[in-house]
Design goal:
single chain, alpha+beta, Translation Initiation Factor IF3, Methane Monooxygenase Hydroxylase, Chain G, domain 1, 4-stranded mixed β-sheet, 12 strands, about 50% helix
């Protein structure tokens, strides 16, 4: 028999002396486990039972009639009391610059805080907080004064929607890449300002997925850390596409980007789409093609840089960054998340 603490991704056999933290973060006590043996008792014709250790029962608070989670994994039983979600509350003081202040707010959201008390005497900062809150799915400002505000989760975020949100994050990122490419090909550079607004949607999906992982990571996946890295790389791809839009939007309509450079852009989008397919299918040939094509495209991009003008040079630098993010995201994170598709467990 195994006692499991999913929040910390650890499981311990009965026959091991260990120090374990209970898997609800509300518990601050440490449980000293001792060597214990449990005799299997037969009840009825086919039912076998064992008793639970009293010390563990008292500390966790198990009562008659409670439901326990019992998970079977490779012949091992994991038993635990269902994890209760803990409300997290924080207080933060914000001052300019806005970029620095935004990092404080979003770090608290990504860390799973449900209520954030914001103190600031700067009107510009408070207006910015209102904009930032719009990117926090399920959150709103419930109190506003001249010296601060309170951001609170007003709608429950269902972790069961994580997979759907991740798929949307992929698709929005690909759409941002395609729309910006088409505008540049058609020399509709002024349209890039509007197109880059799609990055706000991408960012909302990204931070919401991170919030879900922070709140109930091991409920969502066995390896939430790989999902963290995957999400970060998709967010960075979105950032690079936003920078492409911002950099090229002022370009004059008659200014053309060379076909060779546009070809790298188009192939980069194809690589992004191939990565999306590979992540969900994990077909080996797609993975090999992704690895080979990305390397070749990076080499091609570096060669074009030597003869590129200002606008082309900016675009190529961004595309090379996107290709590098694809290379990293399609490596360890994708393989760890899809381990069951290529590993035969013994």
């Amino acid at each position: 028999m195994i006692y499991s603490f999913p929040q910390y991704n650890i499981s311990y056999p009965i026959f091991t002396i260990v120090k374990t933290y209970l898997y609800s973060t509300e518990y601050s006590s440490i449980m000293e486990s001792h060597i214990m043996q449990r005799k299997v008792i037969k009840q009825g014709n086919n039912t076998l039972t064992i008793t639970l250790p009293k010390k563990w029962v008292d500390l966790v608070g198990v009562k008659v009639g409670d439901e326990l989670q019992v998970i079977e994994d490779k012949g091992v039983l994991q038993i635990g009391k269902e994890q209760q979600e803990v409300e997290k509350e924080a207080q933060v003081t914000l001052q300019p610059p806005l970029r620095f202040a935004s990092r404080k707010i979003f770090s608290l959201f990504r860390r799973g805080y449900d209520t954030i008390h914001v103190s600031s005497s700067n009107p510009e900062v408070l207006r910015a907080v209102s904009r930032w809150t719009n990117t926090m799915m399920g959150f709103d400002i419930i109190r506003q004064t001249e010296k601060g505000c309170v951001i609170k989760r007003i709608a429950k975020i269902d972790v069961k929607e994580f997979e759907q949100l991740l798929r949307r994050l992929f698709l929005v990122t690909i759409t941002l890449a395609k729309d910006s490419y088409e505008a540049i090909v058609q020399q509709r550079y002024s349209a890039l300002e509007e197109i880059k607004q799609l990055e706000s949607t991408q960012n909302k999906l990204y931070v919401t997925c991170q919030y879900m992982l922070q709140k109930q990571g091991f409920t969502i996946a066995d390896d939430p850390y790989s999902y963290y890295l995957l999400l970060k790389k998709l967010e960075e791809i979105g950032d690079q596409l936003k920078y492409v839009c911002s950099s090229l939007a002022p370009t004059k309509p008659e200014q053309k980007i060379r076909p060779e450079v546009l070809s790298v852009y188009q192939k980069t989008i194809s690589q992004l789409e191939l990565f999306h397919r590979f992540f969900y299918s994990f077909h080996e040939q797609e993975g090999i093609a992704l690895l080979t094509n990305t390397k070749e495209l990076i080499q091609q991009g570096h060669q074009l840089l030597a003869s590129s003008k200002k606008e082309e040079s900016i675009l190529l630098h961004r595309l090379l960054s996107i290709l590098e993010h694809i290379r990293v995201a399609s490596g360890n994170p994708t393989f760890c998340i899809n381990e069951d598709k290529f590993v035969t467990k013994v």
